[in-house]
């Protein structure tokens, strides 16, 4: 099993503690549904990316933590929506029955919106108004029609349709690349990084995100649900990178994208070694 790099553990602990603190109090159905998916076992790749990017730009990880958690809140919200019967109709997520199977569709939808609005509220409360506005606009763009929502809509419309490689890449850059890119950019922003540094980090993350999604497609075919926490063959009706390139070809493509991603890190020298470790993990991951 290719597990996450060992340096993840401290970051994951900080993220988990802050997410727990951010969740609304109360034990009503919506509050429990929000906590159920958000606090279920996760790699926390997106918030760790935010923290690493802040760190290599000379910022403090404590200052980046609210932005990192906002990325995870958006991600968890998207997973709950993605699993709904009207979307991917998935039974298993993060090793547990999907949120709507536990709480019902209506509550799962409301709780997903609860997590999404909490992401924006967290950023609004944590930062001075100019930075809060920049990070909020970044998140809005990453979630909207040019990001997750657009990618997801195109993905759903393409189910059981013939699509070309270019279209598949567009779908996945929206569904996965956009939030990776926003996570890295937000880290740079909270550190007060230069526009050039932020551009390099975003380029790294955009390619890393696409590689991450290609391996996600691969694990849908070859993965072990005990490791991935998801059912296999959920994408059987979809055109995926594996249907285009085969298992070995998809793994190779992901490796090439990670090499492209790493090239964007050149200006940071050894300071970016942990990001390089992250990309090596992504290229070989089995969870
Ligand atoms: C309004 C937030 C919002 C979204 C609407 C539903 C939707 C649009 C988008 C879904 C996008 C989606 C589910 C993309 C898949 C991304 C992906 C590779 C998920 C698996 O991520 P991991 O492996 O999971 O990082 P863990 O559980 O480790 O966090």
Low-confidence stretches: none
> What is Rg?
18 Å
Helical/strand content category: mainly alpha
Helix tally?
13
Order of helices and strands: HHHHEEHHHHHHHHH
Please describe the biggest sheet, giving its number of strands, its sense, and whether it closes into a barrel. 2 strands, antiparallel
Average per-residue pLDDT, rounded, comes to 94
Strand content: under 5%
Helix content: over 70%
According to DSSP, the number of beta strands is 2
Cα separation of the termini? 8 Å
The set of bound ligands, ions and cofactors reads: geranylgeranyl diphosphate
Q: Outline, from the CA principal axes?
A: globular
Sequence of strands across the biggest β-sheet: 1-2
Plain-language structure description:
With 287 residues, this protein is an all-alpha fold. The chain is 71% helix and 1% strand. It contains 13 helices and 2 strands. A two-stranded antiparallel ribbon has the order 1-2. β1 and β2 form a beta hairpin. α7 packs antiparallel against α9 and α9 packs across α10. The relative contact order is 0.13. The protein binds geranylgeranyl diphosphate (GRG). Geranylgeranyl diphosphate binds next to α4, α8, α9 and α10.
């Amino acid at each position: 099993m290719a597990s996450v790099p060992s340096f993840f553990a401290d970051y994951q602990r900080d993220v988990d503690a802050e997410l727990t603190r951010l969740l609304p109090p109360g034990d009503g159905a919506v509050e429990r549904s929000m906590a159920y998916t958000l606090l279920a076992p996760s790699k926390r790749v997106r918030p760790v990316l935010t923290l690493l990017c802040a760190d290599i730009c000379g910022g403090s990880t404590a200052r980046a933590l609210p932005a990192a958690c906002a990325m995870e809140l958006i991600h968890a919200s998207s997973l709950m929506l993605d699993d709904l019967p009207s979307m991917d109709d998935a039974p298993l997520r993060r090793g547990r029955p999907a949120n709507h199977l536990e709480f019902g569709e209506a509550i799962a939808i409301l709780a997903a919106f609860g997590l999404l609005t909490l992401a924006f509220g967290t950023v609004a409360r944590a930062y001075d108004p100019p930075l809060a506005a920049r990070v909020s606009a970044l998140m809005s763009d990453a979630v909207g029609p040019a990001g997750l929502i657009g990618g997801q809509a195109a993905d759903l419309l393409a189910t059981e349709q013939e699509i070309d490689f270019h279209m598949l890449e567009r779908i996945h850059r929206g569904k996965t690349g956009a939030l990776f890119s926003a996570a890295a950019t937000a880290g740079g922003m909270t550190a007060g990084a230069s526009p050039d540094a932020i551009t390099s980090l975003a380029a790294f993350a955009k390619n890393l995100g696409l590689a991450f999604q290609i391996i996600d497609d691969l694990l849908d075919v070859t993965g072990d649900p005990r490791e991935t926490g998801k059912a296999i063959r959920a994408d059987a009706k979809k055109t995926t990178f594996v249907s285009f390139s085969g298992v070995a070809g998809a793994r190779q493509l992901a490796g090439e994208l990670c090499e492209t991603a790493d090239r964007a890190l050149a200006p940071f020298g050894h300071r970016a070694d942990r990001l390089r470790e992250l990309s090596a993990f992504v290229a070989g991951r089995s969870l």
